[in-house]
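Quick one:
INPUT:
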């Protein structure tokens, strides 16, 4: 996944500060890709060096100055080219699955604790996907004058919801199998 291109996309809506971009990330893209504020600032600086962005310093009375980034024509062309490229096939890396693969070497309680933790996180996501994320998506769309893009944003949220629901179902089935195997092991 390309952080520079994602930032270009966010800046196409309107010029913004690194902090406000992180806030936009947190209320939208964050549910399928997490990024830290230092990563954003490092990437914005690199993009400015490449000529994809320009920035101005906005001075504020009694508060630190803000650096406002805006996409350049070169950045706009780069973003358009990136959108046209076929996305890379995702090869997930999931530490939980690696630990489950080696579950025979683990204490039963530790392993089931990892599965329960994953299940709880999926449940928390479903709760936020239903209660918190949709209003924040609409709020950001209003700020960025991007109401026409809400259907696209909500489609990504829908996949996140479906993955979370599938994860919950998988965790429940995995816990059931692990409990059954543990009982057999204890009876032996």
């Amino acid at each position: 996944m390309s952080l520079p291109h994602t930032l270009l996309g966010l800046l196409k809506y309107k010029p913004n500060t690194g902090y406000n971009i992180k806030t936009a990330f947190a209320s939208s893209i964050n549910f399928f890709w997490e990024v830290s504020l230092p990563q954003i600032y490092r990437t914005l600086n690199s993009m400015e060096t490449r000529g994809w962005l320009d920035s101005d310093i906005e001075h504020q009375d009694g508060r630190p100055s803000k650096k406002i980034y805006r996409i350049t024509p070169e950045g706009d062309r780069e973003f358009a080219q990136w959108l046209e490229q076929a996305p890379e096939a995702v090869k997930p890396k999931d530490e939980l699955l690696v630990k489950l693969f080696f579950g025979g070497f683990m204490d039963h309680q530790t392993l089931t604790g990892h599965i329960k933790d994953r299940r709880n996180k999926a449940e928390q996501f479903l709760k936020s996907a239903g209660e918190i994320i949709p209003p924040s998506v609409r709020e950001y769309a209003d700020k960025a004058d991007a109401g026409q893009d809400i259907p696209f944003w909500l489609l990504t949220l829908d996949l996140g919801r479906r993955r979370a629901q599938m994860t919950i179902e998988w965790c429940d089935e995995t816990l059931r199998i692990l409990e059954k195997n543990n009982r057999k092991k204890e009876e032996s």
